[in-house]
Every structure is written in structure tokens, then in C-alpha cells.
């Protein structure tokens, strides 16, 4: 029984290392193949629209109400000390450093990451990727490289928009629901929040975008077993990407705190 347990654990460790080894290799190829001809700029524009622009409505709605919820929750505590005017700073810092990049990344994972895995997985099981190779087209450069670069850009820009919309949500709740003084609200936002908070979140967003694209594309590219395999790859891509986002969120925050960034 103990031997079987060690075998199961060893198998999982090997699978874990094998996955991240494949991820590292395909990520490097996707990054460097972007600088080889042909460049196919139209594909970059297409994916930027489908990944970024199409995700904007859901991220804007989510961010608006997230900012509103932060204002609602912090008002209860700050009202006890007559410090309601500090809500703006709390909303701005919370959205910029943590909530905007994480929420944007998770929503893009659910919406675009799953689509990447499903589309590439379908092409894999229907042998369309083999057909690309027969035509001397590098499938990683053609299918994965544009998605990686555009996802990084899209998640970064969406995070910046999420910061703004979330702050507006907090502003509306604070000013028009709780009648907080506008001047003090804005002034203490300027005092408490800094541009470093925004940069912190944007760095996270870029890394999250890279993780989403590479993990989702890897699962799609490794699909086996027909339609069932496509479904399994899509599910694993979303779950793995979401877990990676949360783990790297902690690691990035820890490193930045360690170096006082």
C-alpha cells in the first residue's frame, strides 16, 4: 500500500514537471518566433480585438460593481471614525494593486483562455495543425505567438480601464449614496494613492496575460482523444490558468514587497 502511494505521488510529480517543462519550451518558442518572417500583423489585430475589445463590457461591469462594493464595505468601518473621505484612497489602491489585475485576468481566462484551448484543441484533433506543418507553416508561430503577445497587451489595457471604472463605481456610491464630501474625497485619493500602485498592478497584469495565453494554448496544442479531449483540455486550461494567476499574484506581491517596489 505504501509503495502504491509513493508511485502515485511520483507519477504526479513527474507529470507536474513534464507540464511545466513543455510550458517553458513552448513559451520561449512563442516569444522568439514573433521576430521571424512572415509577421502577419492582421492576426495580431484580430486577436487583440477578440481577446481585448470583446472582453471589455464584462470587465467594465464587474469592475464598476467591485468598486461600489469596496465603498459600501469600507464606509461601515470609516463612518465610526468620521473618516468617510478616505474611502476614495482605499478604492483606488485596492483596485490598482490587486482587484483590477486579478479580476481582469480571471475574466479573460474564462472568456478568452477557454476559447484558445478549445479552438487549438479542435484544430489538433481534426489534424488541421498537421496540415499547417505540411504547408511549411510553423503552427506555434501561426497559432500561439499572436495570442501570447496580444493577450499580454489586452490584459494590461483592460486592467487600466478596470482601475478607472472601479474608482468611478466607488465614487458614485460614496458621493451620491453616502453624501461624502467631494473635495475631501478627491484630495485624500491624491494623498493616499500613488502611480506606483498603478504600475504594480500593470506588471501583474502583463504576467497574468502571458500565463493565460501560454497555458491555454499549451493545453489546446496537447489535446488528444477527439471531442472529449477538447472539453477536457478546455477545462484544464481554465482551472490551471486561474490557479497560476492566484499563485503568481502572491509571488509577485511578495517579491515587490521584498524589494520595496
- What is the overall number of helices? 9
Distance between the termini: 49 Å
Instruction: Note the main sheet.
Output: none
Percent of residues in helical segments?
over 70%
Give start-end ranges of low-pLDDT stretches.
none
Shape: elongated
Model description:
The protein has 261 residues and is mainly alpha-helical. It has one domain. It has nine helices and no strands. Its main location: membrane. Belongs to the MlaE permease family. Keywords: Membrane, Transmembrane, Transmembrane helix, Transport.
Keywords for this entry:
mainly alpha, 261 residues, 9 helices, transport, transmembrane helix
List the helices and strands and how they pair.
Layout lengths: L1 H31 L8 H12 L3 H24 L7 H39 L2 H7 L4 H39 L4 H11 L2 H27 L4 H33 L3
Helix pairs in contact: 1-6, 2-6, 3-4, 3-6, 4-6, 4-7, 4-8, 4-9, 6-8, 8-9
